[in-house]
Amino acid sequence: MKNVEANYWAIVPAAGIGKRFSADIPKQFHQLQGELVAQHTLQRLLDVRLINRIIAPCDSASGYWVRVDATKNPRVQLIEGGETRAHSVLSGLNALQDLAKPNDWILVHDMARPCVTSSDICKLIDALKSHPVGGLLATTVNETLKIVTSDQNVEKTVNREHYRVAQTPQMFRYKILYDAISRMLDNQEIPTDESTAIENTGRKVCVVEGRQDNIKITRREDLMIAEAILLNQEKH
User: Fold this and answer.
1) Is the overall model pTM greater than 0.90, yes or no?
2) In order of start, what are the domains of the chain with their CATH numbers?
3) Could you tell me the sign of the dihedral formed by the alpha carbons of 46, 221, 59, 63, in that order?
4) Which of 100, 142, 152, 211 lies 20 to 30 Å from 4, alpha-carbon distance?
5) Tens of pLDDT along 39-78?
6) d(Cα 188, Cα 99) in Å, to the nearest integer?
7) Residues 154, 143 contacting (CB under 8 angstroms)
């Protein structure tokens, strides 16, 4: 593969309503250090100049997007999202079909991960630039892991050495990712992330160690944690 010819594109699905967040306003539109969560996330990706365009599958009719300054950047494009994350990512891939080459790189990132650092994104890009398939950022598990039965009893303690917590961005070749997601959806299967779809094809997915502070905002209390992380990142 001639990696120098590969371009980089990002897809940031944001069509979900965040049921676990328990709020009337989608979590990407909540305030975080004076800006909306979506603004922080998109700006982190815009700071990586290698990324040619950022596609955000979402509810593009939402009035909140006018408050996200990053959407005014010509490198950011809002499109209609899908029923699930996988459908939204596929919509993003379709939006790039006249621009992206089969060998190009697609970075898929969660809109609810505003604390990702540019250095981690660049670390992922650099680690995978010669890889035939792609991979994802992931972190080690620092807590003891238990397998629990349906009646809430501990069945066993597992060795955490071989476990990793998947993060985003996840970065894969355009055609490989497109074919993998399309295949699962055609079979009425819904992958929980892009790596799952790639794994389903039998291909090997590379893991690149990411920072522990690249958290995903899932519950309301995560906003306070993200606030503290952003303040610490600014100091350092």
Assistant:
1) yes
2) 3-235 (3.90.550.10)
3) negative
4) 211
5) 999 999 999 999 999 999 999 899 999 999 999 999 999 9
6) 28
7) no
